[in-house]
Design a protein that fits this description.
heterodimer; A: about 475 residues; alpha/beta; Rossmann fold; 3 domains; five-stranded parallel sheet; two-stranded antiparallel sheet; B: about 400 residues; seven-stranded mixed sheet; five-stranded mixed sheet; 16 helices; binds thiamine diphosphate; binds magnesium ion
Chain lengths: ~475, ~400
């Protein structure tokens, strides 16, 4: 095995042209155990099934179908109950007071930004928005338990992950207004954030496509972790909804992640709805967690309203994900989608108002942490008021500045499709420029940075050699 | 917490100073009435007026004068409805009259995100009208299987942009089912895959695409794009009746914007005929779906400004398509323009233009002009420059006539 492994490493290094002074043997001894295939043959009096497809199965003469509906549902992990009381005092919360306060402030910030941007959309100042209400603890708690170098793939309702990692209010606003300072160059719909510095890939609207990407990225990280054992190893983390988990991409991703034993945490946000579709129309198994076993993946279900549980679960998942070089972990974070799906949705067309009101009253990640903070004399009403007022002002200031910015240069309509502009694109740019020049009254080109000269920049581009 | 949080309205009244006018791009629903917002001083862009545009039937008389409608329908009643209601009526009629019809897709049970399936689950039961799990390959494959066993499934894909997980099922399965089954005679005709398509002005990369050309490269499929409520009702009913799998792509901006008089009773429109919407002498414009409205507005301006006469053809069935109607027109006018939203390269325009030069070369007075999306993705802020607008069509008419 070690020989095979070493030779594989060497081949890889040659293939990828990696220069390293490490010798193969040293790498091999530190190296993770890769899944390897055992060839087995059955013997006549074997007690166990030796079919290659199910190696540890024993023979039985009882005709007994597995009946998932008769087995007990997977438990939901908690550190703190809904009153903010810690259940196992010995373990505690594994969070310092300052950390807890930071987490709380970030959750409040997220919820205030959501309220304001939702309303801004209603006023017609923004084309679209999606709130995280009820899921703030999942995004912020899990992000707080990762290393900043870990690579993240999001679905769209993970604004808190960006916030916790340091995406600033002006960065959010620039994206939401798709202005000249937007990292996405004005190309994406609101809430499709991305950040290279924060190691978060840009969001795509197409559901579940990011899940196999995360598996592949984790494989890349697994190799890179091996190449540089002196740097802190990294993992990939992938967020998605329970609805998205019905897509083929989810199943493909978990399976390939398992066969390649990649260091990846798959975090499902199970908020009870996929737009209007309740989980009862989405699946009949025990949530998403029950699928982990099917792929041979370590799995945990967590109370998403309990930010301490979210953190502890994520930390432990990260440890597991890196154990022996890599393995995938699945966490199902339970929540309730308190808000509408998006600003294009009116959820009272398919669920009762009281259902939402009940949930809001019953439990919420922000209230729960606040109770704990208050019980520990870390928080009070005055602090709450001050925080809310300061945060609101901060959000609005960023909002007003971003709203006034120019739109990005029109060149961004064409750049970035291919690495370089193609001849066909140049023809199209010329035709567009001709139209804009001859019909200046028909277009508001001046709102765009540089006006029509953005197109000249494209036409002036020389082929890179 | 909820009780301690000031309500959104109070908050925002206090914090966000409302602006005098709403940004035209910013309707919270995708069905914005604005198609291509013109600049403040625009004379061409932004002139699509759905209330008066001649390609919609604004009176019962106009609707009932359509020679494609059977005689009894032409003597019957009409009702002014929008396109999503027309789709709903067609589905309702199909469900009522044929127990083999099933309607399903993501979120369709409460009426669908574009309201096309409103009240169908309540009226026909969730055995026949139901939500599927969120998986396009799953629900389309499911529809193919049901069709192959004699049902008539009408599957909805929530946006054309999200049809791609089902591409394999459509291209390799639905399209080839009959052919590969040979003399067993098994096929999946009766299958209809509906999907909202096209741009609305703020859909960016994944709520804007018009992927019809990807499906016109597949033998065995029918690809249909209705332009109006009458067309949607008649073509959808024909699609459900058809013995071939049909992709029925509904221009989503028209769901609410396009309103016209539609016969109350059921009727069928042909799946193999283009339609001349407006006769003309000097140039033929071939288009389908939303851009027909752009073309209609551009034609009005061009005829006024240049004294020319333009013929407008709605292809309706994008594949297989009606070459005869197009060629007949171009042989008469000697000039042709093709307009569609999706990009130029290998688009429907390429096929139409190639056919025209093959079959009407000697009649051509000018090269066939394509007014289409550019070779790029539909970035949010750039849609108005990428999707053909009234100005570009107007200019294409001018150039083609002056050639
Ligand atoms: C491939 C694909 N199909 C359909 C959609 C339309 N769509 C957007 S969000 C959504 C529901 C997703 O639900 P879930 O994964 O549970 O996430 P949540 O919104 O609850 O956070 C759907 C159907 C899409 N974006 N992509
Ligand atoms: Mg969900």
């Amino acid at each position: 095995m070690s020989f095979r492994y070493t030779s594989r490493i060497l081949r890889l290094q040659r293939g990828l042209g990696v220069q390293t002074s490490r010798n193969g043997c040293r790498v091999a001894t530190n190296a993770p155990v890769w899944q390897h295939c055992r060839a087995v043959a059955s013997t006549a009096n074997a007690e166990k099934v030796l079919f290659p497809g199910a190696l540890n199965s024993e023979f039985t003469s009882t005709l007994d179908f597995l009946q998932p509906s008769q087995t007990q549902a997977i438990s939901t992990y908690r550190v703190m109950n809904q009153y903010g009381e810690i259940i196992d005092k010995d373990i505690g919360v594994e969070t310092t007071d300052e950390e807890a306060l930071d987490l709380y402030k970030n959750m409040v910030k997220l919820s205030i930004m959501d309220l304001l941007m939702f309303e801004a959309q209603r006023q017609g100042r923004l084309s679209f928005y999606m709130v995280s209400a009820g899921e703030e603890g999942i995004a912020i708690g899990s992000a707080s338990a990762l290393s900043p170098a870990d690579v993240i793939f999001c679905q769209y309702r993970e604004t808190g992950v960006y916030m916790q990692r340091g995406f600033t209010l002006s960065q959010f606003m620039n994206q939401l207004f798709a202005n000249a300072k937007d990292h996405g160059l004005g190309r994406n719909m609101p809430v499709h954030y991305g950040s290279k510095e924060l190691n978060i890939h840009t969001i795509s609207s197409t559901l579940a496509t990011q899940i196999p990407h995360a598996a592949g990225a984790a494989y890349a990280l697994k190799m890179q972790n091996m190449w540089s054992p002196e740097t802190e190893p990294r993992i990939a983390v992938c967020y998605f909804g329970e609805g998205a988990a019905s897509e083929g991409d989810f199943h493909a991703a978990l399976n390939i992640a398992a066969t390649r034993q990649v260091p990846c945490i798959f975090i499902c946000r199970n908020n009870g709805y996929a737009i209007s579709t309740p989980t009862s129309d989405q699946y009949r198994g025990d949530g998403i967690a029950s699928r982990g076993a099917g792929y041979g993946i370590a799995t945990l279900r967590v109370d998403g309203n309990d930010i301490f549980a979210v953190r502890r679960a994520t930390k432990e998942a990260r440890r597991l994900a890196l154990h022996d070089g890599g393995r995938p972990v699945l966490i199902e974070m339970m929540a309730y989608r308190v808000g509408h799906h998006s600003t294009s949705d009116d959820s009272f067309a398919y669920r009762q108002r009281v259902e939402v009101e009940d949930w809001k009253r019953r439990d919420n990640p922000i209230t729960r942490l606040r109770k704990w903070l208050e019980d520990n004399a870390l928080w009070d009403e005055d602090k709450e008021k001050a925080l809310r007022s300061v945060t609101r002002k901060e959000v609005l200031r960023a909002f007003e500045i971003a709203e006034k910015e120019k739109k990005p240069s029109i060149k961004n309509a064409f750049e970035g499709v291919w690495e370089e502009l193609t001849e066909e694109q140049k023809m199209h740019v010329e035709e567009l420029k001709d139209i804009l020049t001859r019909y200046p009254k028909e277009y508001d080109v001046e709102q765009y940075e540089g006006g029509i000269s953005g197109l000249d920049e494209l036409l002036a581009q020389k082929k890179q050699t | 917490m909820a009780s301690k949080t000031p309500s959104m309205r109070v908050l925002s009244r206090y914090l966000l100073r409302p602006q005098a006018s709403l940004h035209p791009r910013c309707q919270h629903r995708a069905q914005s009435k604005q198609y291509s917002a013109g600049a403040a001083g625009a004379r061409l862009n932004g002139t699509v007026e759905y209330d008066t545009i001649p390609i919609l039937h604004h009176t019962a008389k106009s609707t009932l004068s359509n020679p494609e409608l059977p005689a009894d329908i032409r003597k019957g009643q009409t009702k002014r409805i929008n396109l999503y209601t027309a789709v709903n009526e067609a589905l309702r009629y199909a469900l009522q009259t044929d127990e083999r019809v099933l309607v399903f897709g993501e979120d369709i049970q409460f009426g669908g995100v574009f309201r096309c399936t409103m009240n169908l689950a309540a009226d026909f039961g969730t055995e026949r009208v139901f939500n599927t799990p969120l998986s396009e390959q799953g629900l389309v494959g499911f529809a193919i299987g049901a069709a192959a066993e004699g049902m008539k499934p009408v599957a909805e894909v929530q946006f054309a942009d999200y049809v791609f997980p089902a591409f394999d099922q459509i291209h390799n399965e639905a399209a080839k089912y009959r052919y590969r089954s040979g003399s067993t005679g098994v096929h999946c005709g009766g299958l209809v895959i509906r999907m909202p398509t096209g741009s609305v002005g703020h859909g960016a990369l994944y709520h804007t695409q018009s992927p019809e050309a990807l499906f016109t490269h597949t033998p065995g499929l029918r690809v249909v794009i209705p332009r109006s409520p009458v067309q949607a009702k008649g073509l959808l009913l024909s699609a459900i009746r058809s013995q071939d799998p049909v992709l029925f792509m509904e221009p989503k901006i028209l769901y609410r914007a396009a309103v016209e008089h539609v016969p109350v009773d059921a009727f069928y429109l042909p799946l193999d005929k283009a339609e001349v919407l407006k006769p003309g002498k000097d140039v033929t414009i071939v288009s389908y779906g939303t851009p027909l409205y752009t073309c209609s507005a551009a034609i009005a301006a061009a005829e006024r400004d240049f004294g020319c006469s333009v013929e407008l053809i709605d292809l309706r069935t994008i594949y297989p398509w009606d070459r005869e109607t197009v060629l007949e027109s171009v042989k008469k006018t000697g000039r042709a323009i093709v307009v569609h939203e999706s990009m130029m390269n290998a688009g429907v325009g390429a096929e139409v233009a190639a056919t025209i030069q093959e079959r009407a070369f000697l009649r051509l007075e000018a090269p066939v002009k394509r007014v289409t999306g550019w070779a790029t993705h539909t970035g949010l802020m750039y849609e108005q420059f990428i999707i053909p607008d009234v100005t570009r069509v107007y200019d294409a008419i001018k150039k083609t006539i002056d050639y």
